[in-house]
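Problem 12. The chain below contains 88 residues. Write out its predicted structure in token notation.
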Amino acid sequence: MGKVAAKLKVMPESPDVDLDRLQERIEQGLPEGAKINGFERDDIAFGLVALLPTVIVPDDAGGTEAVEDSISNVEEVESVEVRNVGRI
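Solution.
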């Protein structure tokens, strides 16, 4: 069984969101078998910063939909977008 790495772009609801706390909530809400392999941050505009987590999921998990759904349901997340996906 292989693994897939997905780079996501997570937009918070506002510039006032505590990004450290948001990262914790994202990690806690991941589906079973998925794990975060690091976060980057991207300054967007006017103080808004996007989180760019790299998520590792098993190849048989059926893609990144479960991860996207779980992150979308985290409080203070505005949107989730898949930026890049590749095998490890």
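Discussion. The mean pLDDT is 94. Students who got a different answer should revisit the alignment rule from Section 12.3.
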